[in-house]
Every structure is written in structure tokens, then in C-alpha cells.
Amino acid sequence: MSEAVDVLIMGAGPAGLQAAVHAVRKKASVIIIGRPERSAIYRAHVENYLCVDGVTDGHAMIEIGIAQATRFGARLIEEDVLHVEPADGGFLVRSEGKSFLASTIIIAIGTSKKKLRVPGEKELAGKGVSYCVDCDCNFYRNAKVAVVGNESAAVDGAITLTKYASDVILICKELAVSDTMRQRLSESSVVIKQGTWVKEIIGDTGVTGVVLEDESSLEVEGVFVELGSKGPMELATAIGVQLDMETFSYIDTNKKMETNIPGVYAAGDIAGQPFQMAKAVGDGCVAGWEAANYVKRLKRKLGE
After folding, report:
1. How many C-beta atoms lie closer than 10 Å to residue 217's C-beta?
2. Using CA atoms, how far apart are residues 244 and 130, in angstroms rounded to an integer?
3. Beta strands 90-95 and 81-87: pairing type?
4. Could you give the percent of the chain with pLDDT greater than 70?
5. CB-based contacts of 79: which residues, under 8 Å, 6+ apart?
6. Is the peptide bond before 274 cis (omega within 30 degrees of 0)?
7. Number of H helices, E strands in the chain
8. How far is it, in rounded angstroms, from Cα 100 to Cα 270?
9. Which DSSP state fits 260?
10. Among candidates 98, 177, 168, 91, which has minimal Cα distance to 133?
11. How many angstroms separate the CA atoms of 9 and 292, rounded?
């Protein structure tokens, strides 16, 4: 059973937290899903933000923001978002251990997509090396594939691939996922190779295998690099959100931080440059305000 919420915010950085503060103060119910330590400023030092005297620790600022948002009534769930889809006039959002039916959503996850940075990765990108299970899983029917990563995106991707590939190997140093995700993994056919990492991806015109840190090798036809959480572009495009037409590297929004999908907003780095906390907070302010107003209009229309 999915929990209903007015505004669901993906991301617990400056944009997401500011959006939560504004939305909840306009009497909307608000849930934030994200891991604060993933924020770009969490390990940074801030000195170019208005009213900050000297250099301030980004970690401390995030913690204050969390306390502020939760004090006003927002809830923070420190998990990753794994799936989003339209449902019942709103959006079904699934995290590692929970699911929610949201009237509106704000995407404030950031933009980074980490790479392994090992020999063969760049050369074989698009030739067996992929960064999106949801995008490319259909190309690996009855193939043997490897998924590299320690966190929820890797585990969820590996489980998804079992519906397509003949063999799925999860290569990880040490799993860092919820108990629910561990249970799902244990019940799947995924083979887990833990305590090691990929040293090199090999192949000529396509991937033929990987070399691990212990110098052993695995024959595979595909390597899915899934480091960290589900990429914001994957989540956004899954529900039809339009990206910028020139670079396809950020979500296209208007001045109200609205996307082309009614009820979906974006804020922070995912909404384009400059990648600065001041801009992220401003985006979050507008997105939270507008999302709460959207919910009010929706409820009036439904006669609630």
C-alpha cells in the first residue's frame, strides 16, 4: 500500500530542503527522499553565499537545513528513489523500502553520473559499457552481464537485468543498501562477487570481459556501471520529462520551475547552470512554492 503525500521531493541538498521548507509552510504534506551526504556541498566549504561570514562547513549547513525542514513538518527518508511512474492522477514513487503516491514531485537530485575511470571504459562506452539499466537492458537478452556498484542503483539494476540476461553478476566492494534491498537481492538469481572491483574492461569492437583487482577475469558481454543512486535523467525521462534540446544534460524548466509534465518540477543543478548553492536555494524556493500551489488547485478541482 502506497502512502499518499502532497509533495514528494527527490534530493536532500540545498534545492530539495529549501523546496520542502516553502511547500510545508504552505500547508502541504511533504516527504523528502534522499541521502544528505550525496549533496555537492556536503563535503564542501561555503564562502560565496549571502550572509555567510567567512568560510562555513557545507555539512553543517545541510544539517541545519534538515532540522529546519523537519521542524516545520517535512519528513526525510534517507533512501534512494528507484522508480517513478504516472499513477492515479499523480505519481507513484518507489524508494528502497517504501512506495508513495504523490500529487506532485520535485526533482532536486543533482546531475553527476559517476564513472569507473578504468582502462577500456571510455573506449567501449556504447559498445557494451552502459550507465543506464532501464535504457539498455533490452539489448542484453540471453547475454551474460556484469553490474558494478555498491549501492541501490546497482542492486536494483542487477535484479532488473535478471528478466533479460541469462547471467547477472554483481561486482561490489561492500553492499551499502537497506535490509529490504538485501532481501530482494538474496531472493534473486544475481551472482554476487563481493570484496573486489573492476580494474579493466576488455574488448575490441565490443565488451568481452572484465579484469578484477585480484587479476582474475570474467567473460561478459555487457558491463553496467551503476555507482550511487538512480540517475536523475533516468528518473525524469521515465515519466516523459523534457531535457534541454541542445545538450540533453539538464531538465528544461520555466520560471516557475515547471517541467513539461504537469505536477513535475525541477530545482538545483538538475535544472541547469550555474552550479551554485545560491541558485539551488532560489530554484528550491520557487519549486516548493509552486508545487504547494499546484496541490491546492488540484484539491479545489476535486472538491476536497
Report:
1. 14
2. 22
3. antiparallel
4. 98
5. 33, 34, 35, 95, 96, 97, 98, 152, 178
6. yes
7. 7, 17
8. 22
9. S
10. 168
11. 12
Q: Three cell numbers at 287?
A: 519549486
Which domains does the chain show, CATH number per domain? 3-112+231-301 (3.50.50.60), 129-225 (3.50.50.60)
* pLDDT at position 17 over 70: yes
Residues 6+ apart with CB under 8 A from 272: 244, 250, 251, 253
Hunting for cell 527522499 — which residue is that?
33
Which grid coordinates are listed for 4?
A: 499518499
Q: Cα–Cα distance between 302 and 295 in angstroms, integer?
A: 10
* Cell numbers describing residue 204: 575490441
Q: What is the DSSP string of 43-81?
A: TSEE-SSTT--S-EEHHHHHHHHHHHHHHHT-EEE-S-E
Contact yes or no for 259/265 (Cβ under 8 A): yes
pTM of the entire structure? 0.78
**Burial of 259 per CB tally in 10 Å (0-12, 13-18, 19+):** buried
Q: Is the separation of the CB atoms in 33 and 99 below 8 Å? A: no
Task: Give pLDDT, residue 227.
Answer: 85
DSSP class of residue 251 equals B
Residue with cell 534540446: 245
CA distance 304 to 296: 9
Q: What is the DSSP letter of 26?
A: T
- DSSP string for residues in 267-289: -GGGG-S---HHHHHHHHHHHHH
Strands 198-203, 207-212: parallel, antiparallel or unpaired by DSSP?
A: antiparallel
- Most confident range (mean pLDDT) of 148-157, 230-239, 283-292 is 283-292
Least confident of 20-29, 172-181, 198-207, 242-251: 242-251
C-alpha grid cell, residue 236: 525524469
Q: Is the distance from CB of 228 to CB of 157 less than 8 angstroms?
A: no
Higher-pLDDT residue of 45, 240 = 240
- Please, are residues 23 and 292 in contact by the beta-carbon 8 Å criterion? yes
